[in-house]
Amino acid sequence: xxxxxxxxxxxxxWGYVLVALALTHVTIASVTIYLHRCQAHRALELHPIASxxxxxxxxxxxxxxTKAWAAIHRKHHAKCDTxxxxxxxxxxxxxKVLWEGAELYKAEAQNxxxxxxxxHGTPEDWLERNVYTPHxxxxxxxxxxxxxxxxxxxxLTVWAVQMLWIPFFAAGxxxxxxxxxxxxxxxxxxxxxxxxxxxxLIGGEELHNNHHAYGSSAKLSNRWYEFDIGWLYIRTLExxxxxxxxxxxxxxxxxxxxxxxxxxxxxxxxxxxxDVLTRYARAIRAITRQELARLGDNMPDRKQVMxxxxxxxxxxxxxxxxxxxxxxAGSERIKQLYLMRQELAALxxxxxxxxxxxxxxxxxxxxxxxxxxxxxxxxFSLKLRSYA
Length: 388
Description:
Layout: H1 2-6, H2 13-40, E1 44-46, H3 48-61, H4 66-78, H5 89-92, H6 94-109, H7 112-118, H8 126-132, H9 138-151, H10 154-176, E2 198-199, H11 208-213, E3 227-228, H12 229-239, E4 243-245, H13 263-271, H14 273-295, H15 302-309, H16 318-330, H17 332-346, H18 355-370, H19 375-384
């Protein structure tokens, strides 16, 4: 009777806390390694043993279907921070995504067009067709039974923590706070941020800006002070022969300044395009702030303007574009810096241009930067010429 009331495993109160945290951490690891980095972005391949373990564990603890999760996340990247993004706090508001992220996921999972367009390449074996997809919610019921059998009534609390962890931290915090507040290593065409430099609590997903800069990288940390525990697990699996890393973010290398641009320099610039844009933003920051200060207090929030200047205008709302246009009309120097940034970004956006044409455009951009009369722009051009 005592076993029936207290479960097969009896622990002190702190033991149950550790068990709950350990179980939720396995779920976080499964999401970041299997669903995110493996299935959605193909950054690594998993051995069938590891793949099936993660898939089974996620069925037990989340009820999420691989195809739906991968499709929704891929759409998020394709339509990031636009009205078509399934869960953008820039569009829907932080509170909506933070507290109702799971509901937004469930709603988008019912969109057949999203699943058809973005869900390709995910598992469609017998287990997926007959167990995981049609009986997605039965796994979490089985998990409840297991928790009750193992821990007794306190198992209900353990199970509740498991059920709330992913909806809040993954669907809420990462998708919400990770596009609203934090620091940015890279000037991406979205609002993604790194919440913390230590990706432990949410498996490395805290380094969200790094991920948006290099979406197909299996490693999310980029700076020396950043730690991605998900990458630690992936490397461990690789050593055990249970994973194979396909892609990681390229490291910036520097060479001698090339006075004449060539195909090799063009390739380096395009490869490190987010690093290029980030360094450009930093190079012109002081000048931009000075110009905004000169325009006076009747200008809009300067922090917002600084952000708009580093985005493609198609990413801005109508009223934001109109406000930015007034700023550009009020300062020829800011307008010049803005147009130069747009021209630079266009180097990797012109799919119809030949390599020779792009090399010429890069050379022309550097020439204009160095003849602009703006010292910061000239110095940046020399730095651009030294990417290797």
